[in-house]
Design a protein that fits this description.
The protein has 122 residues and is α+β, with helices and mostly antiparallel strands. It has a domain at 45-120: 2-Layer Sandwich (TATA-Binding Protein). It has helices at 4-20, 61-68, 94-120; strands spanning 50-57, 76-81, 84-91. A 3-stranded antiparallel beta sheet has the order 1-3-2. The radius of gyration is 23 Å and the shape is elongated.
Length: 122
């Protein structure tokens, strides 16, 4: 006879105790206050920002940058250097950074395609 069912019940009880325990008592340091909560740090912590820098090249980097700037948030900056557009994104959470970078890459792709189409078909 095996004690496997008993071990399974013990594991389930421990998981239940973990769920019932207040967040401050958990040893993994995570909070449960919403999306990306596992990577939140105090706002006054200077190391709290996550940063991504995108370097993309375009036939007309100035126009691409100009078309995207109206949608930029305070957490973004753009600089043009010849045919290179450098976009810097700084966000508090990793999830927020990922979302902003994903949106920016899509916007860069669309802007580049629209400008290319307009330039070559006029």
């Amino acid at each position: 006879m095996t004690d496997e069912p008993e071990r399974g019940r013990d594991r389930e009880r421990e998981r239940e105790r973990q769920r019932e325990r207040p967040t401050s008592d958990r040893t993994d340091g995570r909070t449960t206050d919403g999306p990306d909560s596992e990577d939140r740090v105090p706002a006054d912590d200077p190391s709290s920002a996550r940063t991504a820098r995108l370097r993309t090249t375009h036939a007309d980097a100035d126009r691409v940058a100009a078309s995207l700037r109206p949608d930029n948030t305070d957490s973004m900056s753009m600089a043009v250097d010849g045919d290179t557009l450098v976009t810097t994104v700084e966000r508090e959470t990793t999830g927020g950074l990922q979302s902003t970078v994903d949106d920016t890459v899509v916007n860069l792709t669309v802007a580049d395609a629209v400008i290319d189409t307009a330039t070559n078909n006029l």
